[in-house]
Specification:
- The complex is a heterotrimer of chains A (337), B (393) and C (373).
- Chain A has 337 residues and is α/β, with parallel strands linked by helices.
- Chain A contains 14 helices and 14 strands.
- In chain A, helix 3 crosses helix 9, helix 3 packs antiparallel against helix 13 and helix 9 crosses helix 13.
- Chain B is of the alpha+beta class.
- Chain B contains eleven helices and eight strands.
- In chain B, a hairpin with a 2-residue loop joins strand 2 and strand 3.
- In chain B, helix 3 packs across helix 7 and helix 10 packs antiparallel against helix 11.
- The longest helix of chain B is centred in the N-terminal third of the chain and has 34 residues.
- Chain C is mostly helical and 373 residues long.
- Chain C contains 15 helices and no strands.
- The two termini of chain C are 41 Å apart.
- The relative contact order of chain C is 0.08.
- The chains are: A alpha/beta (337), B alpha+beta (393), C mainly alpha (373).
- Chains in contact: A-B, A-C, B-C.
Chain lengths: 337, 393, 373
């Protein structure tokens, strides 16, 4: 036993001695000439191909925004579609530089998987979708139901907690992908489907009979979705975080892709700093000072992203948690100064 | 000057062997070390914690199906999830093996039937099922056949008020043993019945040796056993049945065979049966024609000829590849991920892996289980082969 | 010249009418006994119940016209082949070529060239078989890659991770077949070797891979492989799946090849030894040519399994034939036509595997004649 420990210890020490240092992600990305971004690829509103086969959605657009911030060109991004199972290894192993795949930030993931969460690009919450024929009006009536859920997600954990807390029983039917989950629910293998509310709307619209199913009023969890980066590269983390902050700040200051050139002439020092007219915000990050200008110019500010992708799902921004803090929501970017 | 030309040492096969082995060993060790090195390095560099500690933590999710082991949400640890995964893998394997063997034997014998239609039907069956990927078959049965065709629980297909079939699965009555001595009487009756069957069967055999006439001993035995059961049930009421009834959402009560299990079982059995049928056919064909002719000249009809002469000899050829098919079936049960049946791979290497992120440990444990099963199978096969060889010559 | 007496057998009489022809066949195979006749009648009845509705669904009453689901919705009693027709390019060649139908000629040309090469190899008595075979193995893949991927020839690029459908299935299978065979031969030789360490390593490798289900190997390839390499090496998902499939199938290939090796009589080894041949010459010139010939049926069987098993990449999210067909049937436009999608995909798999199995049986029969005369 001691011998084994000694040997593993020795091998580990040797391994660490010969370990290649993780290079700066920014340098890697610049040398490569494009950003590698991990997305879902099959989730309307977040990342899904449009008619022309381009990836669109709030997650995919954010990737393009980061590419624009780095290269001044939003097309310098390559998307990798990842399953829920692969996403964290893909990020931590360097297969992607940035994970923008409707991923909930949690303590365990942050602490044990070698990744860091940045900020949120969509604040979601979990809900239930039921067939009307069951006559259920509230999630509290679901005692004894079979629940379709995508296996191995935080959704599954919230589901278990919710039923346990409310003293109800349920039977989980855990499918591997969100599409299979939908097909299973549509085919009748369960009574109710649970997922993030942003997705329930999309899922409902893709059922054989969308009118035959309803989204229940309860929201049972906090699902702050946001981009994540590899642990151990503070500069890269700052770049991704502040690109997101920049999009939100632009929204707050009323800078849009349409008026960004005019806004450069604005007298407002906040806008001047944001767009790189004044101070050296970008250079502090290791980018050019026009990084936020490029991102906003090419993909739009946060509100544009939202209206383009999430509003069509039937989820209004006004009055929701995803509104700016100035409008009663939760999105709040630290000052850029 | 010595006239002998010495063979240089590097031409000596023994030396060459040693060198070759050293080189291969070195290469393999180097490869393994590099992988180990990179893995440890990568894990460390990325701050991924790895190890077995998580096994004792409470599993934060619910397990959907565990027929024999009790899973308590919020109390049961991760290692129990692992055990449940193994349990469900074993369950589907045993069910699948029984069904596949039965179907396979019937189809295999049919393939050699003198009747044109029967043999053609068997041929079509074999060629269809074994030439289409099993994953496609599983998905086909699940998403294109059973889910769309079976009714919702409210309109379940029922056989009487006891057995129901709907898109959630198959429901059958569940026997519940009563308290007290009555169940033991039942156990005793079953034992007695079995004993009667064995004794009467033996008696019939002996009669046949003595007189040439064979009384239907087995039939008598079964009659005695059934009679005993009827008497016990009439007098003692050793068990009751719990019937499935329609609840708020699904049927509750009774034994439920969930649809994913049913689909997987159906797909795996029909698929594997096509291979077993081929083995059976090959086995029967391998028995030399002389045996058939000898049996015919004894006046045996086709059924007893197959049962008493051909199949016992064919089994020697049939069994080894069939055991390999059993192993394949067990491994193919890992395709349950596609239909949400919670066996080892979908529960452990799927859900638990996602929830903990412990890819290394979990995949290693999963592969470990299958490799152990496979090695056990090889062992059984080797022992069997040795025994058969001894019997043969 | 004296006339010689020549023995002239009279022509044998034809067998009695009752022993030949349709009548005899029917009596023997259909109505041999009472049970037999009963079975025949029941079978005919079952066929009567099954065949007409199936034909009506798949052929006579099927929908093929039009370009959207309204055609099929109007006639729900028949199969919706319109769906397959509209999504055909996507299901066969994947998303990229589905979006750029003007580039489809590239994979089509690739497949046509391959079909030509195969025809050359399979038709008996064509010249330069060895050269053509070597070209098919080592030259053609590069040409096909250049043609389909496009970069080297200055064509619009079709990135490999956007290859899909049958094209992906076929690529995965071919790469697996090309790499698994030599690896398998080496492993089989290792397992039969006299050198204990080499034998032990080979056995460990073979049993480990054969024990694990392919799906866990693919999980490993997709989730863990990146951890095994230093982070400069960057392999995309398709390549990782190829590695997984090749390594996995090489273990099965080793067993197929080993079967052939075991069938070679000792005398052959001893004869080679007595000629003073070294190990590699003995194996390469004497043993392997004989044993591989014997192994051909089991090698083809392993290839069949490999081909079918490529469908498992659907579980790790690659859009192969199965996953592409399924995805198409789950799109908003064609929801509910799963049955057609699966039947279509199944029939493609079936044609490929069945032809392989016929080829293997053909070879088996050809080799068999030498033994049983």
């Amino acid at each position: 036993m001691h011998l084994v420990k000694l040997m593993t210890g020795g091998l580990t020490a040797l391994a660490l001695a010969t370990l290649p240092a993780l290079g700066g992600t920014l340098d890697d990305v610049k040398a490569r000439g494009f950003l590698k971004c991990g997305i879902d690829g099959g989730l309307p509103g977040f990342s899904a191909p449009n008619d022309k086969g381009q990836m669109v959605g709030i997650d995919a657009d954010f990737c393009s925004g980061v590419a624009a911030a780095i290269f001044g060109d939003k097309t310098k991004v390559k998307f990798t579609t990842l399953t829920a199972k692969e996403r964290f290894t893909a990020l931590s192993s360097g297969e992607v530089d940035l994970l923008s795949r409707n991923t909930t930030a949690t303590l365990t993931r942050d602490a044990t998987l070698g990744i860091d969460f940045t900020y949120f690009n969509y604040i979601d919450g979990q809900g239930f979708l039921v067939k009307n024929s069951l006559g259920v009006k509230s999630a509290k009536e679901l005692n004894g139901a079979s629940v379709c859920v995508q296996a191995g997600t935080t959704t599954e954990l919230n589901l278990a907690d919710y039923f346990r807390v409310n003293g109800m029983t349920f039977k989980p039917i855990g499918y591997d992908t969100s599409v299979q989950t939908r097909e299973g629910f549509d085919g009748g293998s369960c009574d109710v489907l649970t997922s993030d509310k942003s997705q329930l709307a999309a899922i409902r619209s893709e059922l054989k009979d969308p009118a035959g199913a309803t989204i229940l009023p309860e929201t049972i969890s906090k699902e702050p979705l946001g981009p994540a980066v590899r642990q151990g590269d503070p500069q890269w983390r700052d770049i991704v975080t502040w690109t997101l902050y920049a999009l939100i700040t632009a929204d707050e200051l009323g800078v849009t892709s349409a008026n960004v050139d005019e806004m450069k002439k604005s007298a407002n020092p906040d806008i001047k700093r944001l767009l790189g007219v004044e101070d050296k915000m970008g250079e502090n990050l290791g980018l050019t000072n026009s990084f936020a200008y490029d991102a906003v110019k090419q993909v739009g500010n946060y509100d544009e992203l939202y209206q383009r992708s999430i509003t069509p799902l039937g989820l209004k921004r006004e009055g929701s948690v995803n509104a700016l803090w100035t409008k009663g929501g939760l999105l709040y970017a630290p000052p850029m100064r | 000057m010595s006239g002998k030309s010495r063979i240089p040492f590097y031409r000596n096969p023994a030396v060459r062997g040693v060198i070759a082995q050293a080189v291969v060993l070195g290469l393999v060790a180097w490869a393994l070390f590099t992988i180990f090195n990179n893995t440890v390095g990568n894990l460390r560099a990325r701050g991924i914690q790895t190890g077995f500690q998580f096994l004792d933590q409470v599993a934060p999710f619910a397990v959907g199906y565990s027929p024999f082991i009790d899973f308590k949400l919020g109390e049961s640890p991760y290692w129990l999830v692992f055990v449940i995964g193994i349990q469900n893998t074993i369950l589907i394997s045993i069910l699948g093996i029984i069904a596949a063997t039965t179907i396979g034997f019937i189809i295999g014998v049919m393939r050699l039937s003198p009747n044109f239609f029967l043999s053609r039907f068997a041929q079509v069956y074999i060629e269809t099922f074994r030439n289409i990927p099993v994953l496609l078959q599983i998905m086909f049965w699940n998403f294109a056949v059973f889910l769309p065709l079976l009714p919702f629980p409210k309109d379940s297909l029922g056989i009487g008020d006891e057995v129901f079939l709907n898109n959630r699965g198959l429901y059958i009555p569940k026997p519940i043993f009563m308290d007290g001595a009555a169940p033991w009487v039942l156990v005793a009756a079953v034992a007695l019945g079995l004993l009667a069957i064995i004794l009467l069967h033996r008696w019939a055999k002996e009669r046949q040796y003595m007189t040439g006439e064979r009384p239907p001993g087995l039939l008598y035995g079964i009659a005695v056993a059934l009679g005993l059961l009827v008497v016990v049930f009439a007098l003692f009421e050793p068990l009751r049945f719990e019937f499935p009834v329609l609840g708020r959402f699904n049927l509750t009560g009774g034994i439920q065979v969930p649809l994913p299990l049913f689909t997987l079982w159906f797909a795996l059995s029909t698929y594997t049966a096509s291979f077993i049928a081929e083995n059976v056919r090959a086995g029967i064909v391998s028995v030399s024609k002389g045996q058939t002719e000898a049996a015919q000249s004894l006046g045996l009809k086709r059924a007893p000829m197959l049962r008493l002469v051909i199949i016992p000899q064919a089994l020697r050829v049939i069994i080894p590849p069939t055991i390999n098919q059993y192993l394949n079936l067990t491994k193919n049960s890992s395709l349950a991920v596609a239909v949400a049946y919670e066996e080892l791979v979908s529960l452990w290497a799927g859900i638990a892996l996602n929830q903990t992120g412990q890819a290394l440990v979990i995949i290693a444990m999963t592969i470990g289980v299958y490799v152990t099963l496979s090695l056990l199978t090889s062992l059984v096969l080797n022992v069997y082969n040795r025994r058969v060889q001894l019997v043969e010559r | 010249m004296a006339e010689s007496v020549v023995f002239q057998p009279i022509v044998s009489r034809p067998p009695p009418l009752s022993e030949t022809g349709l009548w005899h066949w029917a009596r023997e195979r259909l109505f041999g006994s009472v049970t037999n006749s009963l079975v025949t009648l029941i079978c005919i009845y079952i066929l009567y119940l099954l065949i007409p509705p199936m034909l009506s669904w798949a052929v006579f009453n099927a929908n093929i016209s039009g370009t959207d689901r309204s055609v099929c919705a109007a006639n729900p009693g028949g199969a919706c082949w319109t769906f397959i027709k509209v999504r055909f390019v996507q299901i066969i060649f994947g998303l990229h070529f589905g979006q750029h139908p003007e580039e489809v000629w590239r994979p089509v040309l690739g497949f046509a060239m391959l079909a030509g090469l195969f025809a050359w190899l399979l038709v008996p008595r064509t010249p330069y078989k060895v050269q053509v075979g070597l070209f098919t193995l080592f030259g053609f893949p590069f040409i096909a890659y250049a043609l389909i991927q496009g970069e080297w020839l200055g064509l619009p690029i079709a990135p490999t991770n956007e290859w899909g459908g049958f094209l992906l299935t076929f690529t995965l299978a071919s790469v697996g077949m090309v790499f698994a065979l030599p690896l398998g031969i080496i492993l089989a030789l290792g397992r039969r070797s006299n050198l204990p360490i080499i034998r032990a390593i080979s056995i460990a490798y073979i049993e480990l891979w054969r024990g694990a289900p392919l799906i866990t190997v693919l999980f490993m390839a997709s989730v863990m492989l990146p951890l095994f390499f230093s982070h400069e090496i960057d392999l995309n998902k398709v390549v990782r799946a190829m590695i997984g499939i090749s390594l996995f199938q090489s273990a099965y290939m080793a067993e197929a090849v080993r079967g052939g090796l075991q069938a070679i009589p000792r005398g052959q080894y001893e004869a080679a030894d007595s000629l003073g041949l070294g190990y590699w010459k003995k194996m390469g010139l004497i043993i392997l040519p004989q044993s591989l010939k014997i192994s051909i049926p089991s090698i083809v069987n392993t290839y069949m399994t490999l081909f079918k098993d490529t469908s498992l990449v659907a579980i790790i999210g690659l859009l192969d034939l199965l996953n592409m067909a399924q995805t198409a049937s789950r799109s908003l436009e064609w929801k509910g036509y799963d049955f057609e999608a699966y039947v279509f995909a199944a029939s493609i798999y079936w044609v490929c595997t069945y032809s392989m199995s016929r080829y293997s049986q053909h070879i088996e029969r050809k080799l068999d004649t030498s033994k049983r005369g």
